Amino acid sequence: MPEGRSHGYVLLSVVCWGGAQYLTDALLSVFSPALMIMLRFLLSGLVLCLLYGKSGNFHMVVFLKRYLPAGGLGAFGYYLLAAYALRITSLPFVSIMGGILPLLALLLDITVLRKKAQLTDWLKALLSVAGVLLLSCGAGFSWNITGGVLMIAANLTWLFYGILIKSWNEQGKNKQKKNGQELDRQENNRQEDNKHEWNKQEENVEKKNTQKENAELGYEFLAASFLTFFFFQDFRVCGRIAMWEIILLLLLVAVGTILPYRFYREGSKGMSLQTASIYLNLLPVITLLPSLITGRMQLKGLQFPGIIFLILAGLLGKAGKGGRSTGK
Length: 328
Description:
Blueprint: H1 3-27, H2 33-52, H3 60-88, H4 91-96, H5 101-111, H6 119-135, H7 145-188, H8 195-227, H9 243-267, H10 273-280, H11 283-294, H12 303-315
């Protein structure tokens, strides 16, 4: 995939997730955190499995070894922690805590993945942290220690999910490389008049791979929803469910869950974990943008450079080694 398209997919995922935070905040007035997480990922998983389930490779052993850990980290773990943090803090606080993600990703790159960090990598990470601190000045973001710990834990679970998916992508690339070498050998034996048939075969392979990835994502979502049943005592409906809440839930499933996960997984194949996290650094800006436009929130003093730092860190996503694919 072209590098520009990879970055575009990740940016699209950030935009979707930014809007999803508003949907989540609205639905928490009706559903308890655990119940909302269960409904969100159960419905998302069912939709993907109904559409693409036959394309996936489902066995109980594979489910327990692959989809359960992925769903536990990237869906259940992150969103459950974030939902409880949202209950005791505020939407602006939860959104801006995404700004610590690049620094955590850089530290994991150095300690876990054993990668060398360049000066630009530290600059991007420190700009993100500075943006978080400045943006929170005088904003009434409901800072508290418990909420901060929950969001740090949530960001860490997301990063470990990224490491897991990255390792699977590398395995897939190696497998595709072997298949590609075999296809090249077959291509050399074909005549020019069979080229159209050959291109059609390649398109079919790519289509099947996409359908398989959608099915696997559906299995991950189902695994995440099953894990929420350990918190069944927190399954509560806090008020009357109106048609508006049902529409919001369906939007959360389609636009706030299925689409951004597909965009992020597709785009992050061509970049490092640290670079992908830099783009997620724009999540606070996108989440707060509607409030700024409508006048519900106004920036003051040091908050202006805070916004600038977060945007600048995002724009520096391609700079340095952190912006290169791990395969290069």
